[in-house]
Structure formats: C-alpha cells, structure tokens
From TrEMBL:
It is an enzyme of class 1 (oxidoreductase). InterPro entries: FAD/NAD-bd_sf, FAD/NAD-binding_dom, FAD/NAD-linked_Rdtase_dimer_sf, GSHR/TRXR-like, Pyr_nucl-diS_OxRdtase_dimer, Pyr_OxRdtase_I_AS, Thioredoxin-like_sf, Thioredoxin/glutathione_Rdtase. Coiled coil: none annotated. Its EC number is 1.8.1.9. GO terms for biological process: cell redox homeostasis. Residues 258-595 form the FAD/NAD(P)-binding domain. Residues 1-23, 50-97, 156-191 are annotated as: Disordered. This is thioredoxin-disulfide reductase (NADPH). SUPFAM superfamilies: FAD/NAD(P)-binding domain (SSF51905), FAD/NAD-linked reductases, dimerisation (C-terminal) domain (SSF55424), Thioredoxin-like (SSF52833). Residues 10-23 have a biased composition (Polar residues). Residues 645-694 form the Pyridine nucleotide-disulphide oxidoreductase dimerisation domain. Belongs to the class-I pyridine nucleotide-disulfide oxidoreductase family.
Length: 710
C-alpha cells in the first residue's frame, strides 16, 4: 500500500502560471513558471498529532524524485494529486499560496487548517520544485465533513531572494470567528479566512535551511513570514490572528513614503526606530529641539543623554569624588592644598562625553539605514506629517504608522521673571559659569538630585519646597533623604512658593531677588541668589503637533497621551512611547524597552508587551535612594497591614550605590521574591546589600533595628 498522499500527473492540470482556483474565491498573483524539463512524481505522509507542518526533499532527483509533508491534523487520511515541474536551478523557489477549506465543522478549527496548509506548502518547498498540489481529507472523524488542502509553488529566474513574497490564504471551517475586517478580506463565504506570507527559499533544501538559520536561528519549516515579518510556525501565526496582530500586519500600504515615522529622537523613539529598521522596515526619525528660554538646545538622544540621566550622573559622581577626597584624610591620605572644584573643567568633560553619544546615535541610525531629519513634526492630515527645519523650510512625509516619542520639557512657574532669569535642568548641565549661591525650587527627584550634587561641589544651596519631598515615593524614605541632605549643608524652606523673581545685577552669574509666600498663611520671605533653578515638574511636548487634526486624544492639562496596553492611541495607526504616556513611569529603561517591544509587535510578529510593574528606579541624591514596587503607603492601601510580611511587593534601600543594589533585587521580585527566600540567601559580608538577608525585626514591632556587630 502506498503513502496516503499520492500524486500523479493530471491530464487536466492547470495552465502554468495560473492559480488553482478561480478569482471568485481569492485574488492570487502568480509568477510564470520557468520552462519545464521534466515532471516529478511525489508522495508523502501526514501522521496524526504532529504540531507543525514541515516538508523536505525525498529522493535523488530525476523522474523518481519525491516529497514528503507532514502536519498536525485530526485522524483520517489525505489523498491528493499534483503537478510538479523542475525549473532552472538559477531561480529561487517561492511558495505562493496555500488553501485549506472545509464544507462543515472541524474539531480543531482553523488551527488544523493552518497546520495542514503549511505542511502542503512546505512539502512543495522541500521538494525544490515548482508546481501545484491538492489534497483531500477523505476520511474525517465522525461528525465532520470532508475538507481539502491546496498549495501552489513557483520558481522565478534570478538570484535567491529573501523569504517573503506573495500572500498565503488559509480558509477554515464554516462557523469559525472571522478576523477583523481589512483591505485584504476575501469574499463573504462563511469561512474563516487568514492571510499569511509564506517562505521564499533558495534553490535546494540545504540552502533553505541556511537562509532560515541566518534570519530566524531555526532550520525547520514551516517558517511563516507576513509582509517581511517572521511569524514563526503555525501556532504562533494563529495566536497572532486571534490577537488581531495578523490583520494589522497585512494592512501596510506600500504607497506611503515610510513604513514608520518616529517623532522624537530620545531613548524610546530611537530604540523603536532602530528595531523597526532591523526588522526590514523603512523608517524616518524626526527630531527637533526647541531652544529653552535661555537659548539652550542639544543634539540627538533626547533628555536622558543631553540634559538628564547622563550629565546628572556624571555631576553626581563628581560630587562623590570630592567627598571621597575630603574623607581620604581619615584613611591616611595627605595633600598640601585644599580640595577645590573647577566648574568649567567639569562641564567641558561632560559636554564632550555627551557629544560623543550624539554622534554615536547618528552613526547607529546610518548603519541601520534609518533616515534622520532635524525637523519639527506636525500632523497635517491622516498618515501625513509636515517637517519644518530650523530655517523654516517645510517638507511633507507619509507613513503607514507613527510613533510619538517627543518626551517632556521643564515646567515654568508662570510668575514675573521666571523665564527671563531662571534656569532649568535644560540649561544647568551646559552652564558656562559656576552657578554660585543657588535656590532650587521644587521637591521632585530632579530638584533633590541637582541640589545634592551642587552642594557636593561646594556651593551654597537652598531648596524651596511647596509640600512634601519626592511625591509618589515612600515618604519615610523621602524624609530620610531630606534629613541626610540637611546634615550635609543643604537648607530647606518648607511650605513656600515663589511669587516673583527680580534681577538685581547682571553677570555670570548675576544676582536675583526671589520673593516667596507661605502655602499655610500670609507670611512672605525674600532671598538673594546667584542662580534660581526651577525643578517643579515637566510637561509633555504634544500640544503643537497637530494631533487634533487626526483625532488623537491627549490630556489637555498635562499633554500626556492615553494609550492601551500595546502603546496604541485612540487612532489605530498612531502609537506613543516614553514620557508622553499617561500614567506610566517616566524612566529611560522603560522607554527603551517599550520602544523595542512596540517595533517587534508592529513588524516582527511578536506579542510581548512592556511590563510597567515592579520597575526599579533610583534617586541619585548624595545618599542614593533605590526602590522597586510599592511604597509602604500604597502597599497598605492595596493589601492592608496584615498581609505585608510574606511576598516582597516593595523594596527600598537608602545608601551608597543604591542603584547597583536595587537592580538585582528587582529581577528577583519579578520572579516572585519572598521574605523566606531572602532569609535563605547567604549574604556577602561586609556589604550594604547583605542586610536584606538578615532582616528579623518588623517595623510594626517598634523595636530598634540598629545592627550590632557582624
């Protein structure tokens, strides 16, 4: 008895270069077959319960060459016929289309259809031939109707191409839920229809495996591609259909200038743009820095690189080095002169480092073929954006998808003299002169970090606080941060807000008079400072982008953009990442992760979403404060007091190098860290982090937690 799948030349086989089915069923674009030299016979076997369809060449060529395909399916037999042609080996094989359909219910539904159809296509691909094959499930399980599988493969002259070309359509049983409507939706037949893109391979089986290995690190088939996006096998393809991702991937319009335009050249935007380019998409990045009221602007890289994380950490380190030099006397170090800091030397080194990072980003975009234009982006209509450069020249571009990653800029007080005489973090890190006696207005982490390193550099620093320190952080830890700073020379003016800033003297720095009033009564105060640094919060850069023209909703007060769990706005083709998101942490690593995962979902067939829970963060004050998870206040609100002594839901550390300590514990929390696991861990002695392996006293007990001895 032969194989269940038996093929033989059919006298009524279809004309070369035409589809196996009529255009009323589906639209199919085929390429002419190369001139045939001989016809191959083929046979194959489809065993039960195989999860994925695969195909390979069987036989040694000539008229007796054969194929074998196998795929996941219900019990029963498949019998079929096909016409296989052996074209010139100079071309590259492409599985053009594959169809599985049923006239009735099928237990495993579209999953079976996908496996069966993929196996048929893979069998043809593995045979290194061009032609067509058809199979029929002639012995279906009880209660099911017969169904059939069709596959077409063509070979085109020329060098081997990448593994994507023509659409693959799978039709499943009647009664299955239809995918979302879209431009590729077929006729209304009551069948489930899915549209995929099959693999286009090299001349032989070995070459197929090499190409797949290079692109996917896999050597097995089927490996399904949708519009150049690697989906993987049948299971992942069907998952993508169920989630709606498959339909989105099929809606790309090649008439647009770009597949993706990213507005904003910060950490999140660049991560998204580069990942999309790696996945084979045509990408444009628009980035333009509007100068601050003091005239400060910068290059590619966004807030973090230019006026945030990087320069802040460098200046924080400079302050720690100064403190270490002072402390070194107690460890026997001797030096003849008093420790003195040179502001100009530090800022020059900081800006040189930032410049190297800016250039590195430019090179990285160039290497990945990402277009970069230093222009301000503004939507003018759906899928169309106007880019205006520094000279006022305007150019319009279109794209299938957009990502808004414009970040935030510092907020001003809205009082007399604030924009004329005050600076923000946008200006501080490139300030060409030492700021001298400084008033820092605000109690955010930006305010306390800047106040901390300025004091560490030897400057006279005062912090004016409206209410509480580090709102949103654990308040016990926040107060400990403030107490440490006070002990090391930083003064705090609590419950006051500025009402006016006047210039007394011009200069670098000059002299400014600040008038403030109490938030609790009629009391007013005045003070004279060389520099006033505002750090009272930040506003999203979204209000002059023309978002209202395309209907993107934003929070009118903050400018932040509401998105769903896949960073999609209310306009389906517009997404957002980074600090512009409403209700999400404003952290560089979050923006980078979200940007990469977004690109992979849009263009890589992936489903993973960014995890915004248990995100570690550090406040780089003189004594660093690191945390991950809930604050104590939030934990009690969510879990109540009696449930807080088992699983670790919040982790906080105040001490040297807290940033280095918190990173590892954050990973442990994602894995379900418990108090018992900490107790079972052997600590490294003597280190700051080892204290978490020896915790014995709860806060609720009221006992002294001071550790005595080792």
């Amino acid at each position: 008895m032969g194989h269940p799948w038996e093929t033989k030349r059919s006298p009524g086989s279809p004309t070369v270069g035409t589809p196996l089915w009529d255009n009323n069923t589906m639209q199919l674009s085929t390429r002419p077959f190369a001139k045939s030299r001989r016809v191959r016979w083929a046979s194959g076997h489809w065993p039960r319960s195989h999860a994925l369809g695969v195909g390979r060449s069987q036989g040694r060529g000539g008229a007796n060459g054969g194929i074998r395909g196998r795929g996941g399916m219900d019990p029963g037999r498949i019998q079929g016929r096909g016409e296989l042609r052996n074209p010139s080996r100079r071309g590259s094989l492409s599985v053009v289309a594959c169809q599985a359909e049923s006239d009735g219910e099928l237990n495993r539904g579209p999953g079976t259809a996908i496996s069966a159809a993929a196996a048929a296509a893979a069998a043809l691909a593995g045979a290194d031939v061009a032609g067509a094959g058809e199979g029929r499930h002639s012995q279906p399980p009880a209660g099911q109707c017969p169904w059939r599988v069709r596959a077409v493969a063509t070979r085109t002259p020329g060098p081997p191409l990448r593994p994507w070309d023509q659409p693959l359509v799978l039709r499943g049983p009647r009664g299955a839920a239809a995918p979302p409507a879209g431009p590729h939706r077929g006729p209304s037949s009551g069948h489930l229809q899915q549209e995929l893109l099959s693999a286009q391979h090299a001349d032989n089986g070995a070459s197929v495996q090499e190409v797949l290995s290079e692109l996917t690190n896999q050597r097995t088939v089927p490996n399904i591609f949708v519009n150049k996006v690697h989906m993987g096998g049948c299971d992942r393809t069907f998952q993508a259909h169920q989630s709606g991702l498959l339909q989105k991937l099929l809606q790309d319009d090649p008439a647009y200038d770009y597949d993706l335009i990213v507005i904003g050249g910060g950490s999140g935007g660049l991560a998204c743009a580069q990942e999309a380019a790696i996945l084979g998409r045509k990408v444009l990045v628009l980035d333009f820095v509007v100068p601050s009221p003091q005239g400060t602007s910068w290059g590619l890289g966004g807030t973090c690189v230019n006026v945030g994380c990087i320069p802040k950490k460098l200046m924080h380190q400079a302050a720690l080095l100064g403190q270490a030099l002072t402390d070194s006397r107690k460890f026997g170090w001797e030096y003849s002169q008093q420790v003195k800091h040179n502001w100009g030397t530090m800022t020059e080194a900081v800006q040189n480092h930032i410049g190297s990072l800016n250039w590195g980003y430019r090179l990285s975009l160039r290497e990945k073929a990402v277009a970069y234009i230093n222009s301000y982006g503004e939507f003018v209509e759906h899928h169309k954006i106007k880019a205006t450069n520094g000279k006022g020249q305007e150019t319009c571009y279109t794209a299938a998808k957009f990502v808004i990653a414009t970040g935030e800029r510092p907020r001003y007080l809205g009082i007399q003299g604030d924009k004329e005489y005050c600076i923000t973090s946008d200006d501080l890190f490139s300030l060409p002169y030492c700021p001298g006696t400084t008033l820092v207005v605000g109690a955010s982490y930006v305010a306390l970090e800047c106040a901390g390193f300025l004091a560490g550099l030897g400057l006279d620093v005062t912090v004016m606080v409206r209410s509480v320190l580090l709102r949103g952080f654990d308040q016990e830890m926040a107060e400990r941060v403030g107490s440490y700073m006070e002990q090391h020379g930083v003064r705090f003016l609590r419950k006051f807000v500025p009402v006016e800033v006047q210039q007394l003297e011009k200069g670098s720095p000059g002299k400014l008079k600040v008038m403030a009033k109490s938030t609790e009564g009629p009391e007013t105060i005045e003070g004279v400072y060389n520099t006033v640094l505002l750090a009272i919060g930040r506003d999203s850069c979204t209000k002059k982008m023309g978002l209202e023209k395309i209907g993107v909703k934003i929070n009118e007060k903050s400018g932040k953009i509401p998105v769903n769990d896949v960073e999609q706005t209310n306009v389906p083709y517009v997404y957002a990442v980074g600090d512009v998101l409403e209700g999400k942490p404003e952290l560089t690593p979050i923006a980078v992760q979200a940007g990469k995962l977004l690109a992979r979902r849009l263009f890589g067939g992936r489903l993973e979403k960014c995890d915004y829970v248990n995100v570690p963060t550090v406040v780089f004050t003189p004594l660093e404060y690191g945390c991950c998870g809930y604050s104590e206040e939030r934990a009690i609100e969510v879990y109540q007091k009696e449930n807080l002594e088992d699983r670790v839901i919040g982790f906080h550390v105040l001490g040297p190098n807290a940033g280095e300590i918190i990173q590892g514990f954050a990973a442990a929390m994602k894995c379900g860290l418990t108090k018992q696991l900490l107790d079972d861990t052997i600590g490294i002695h003597p280190t700051c982090a080892e204290v978490f392996t020896t915790l014995q006293i709860t806060k609720a007990s009221g006992l002294d937690v001071t550790q005595k001895g080792c």
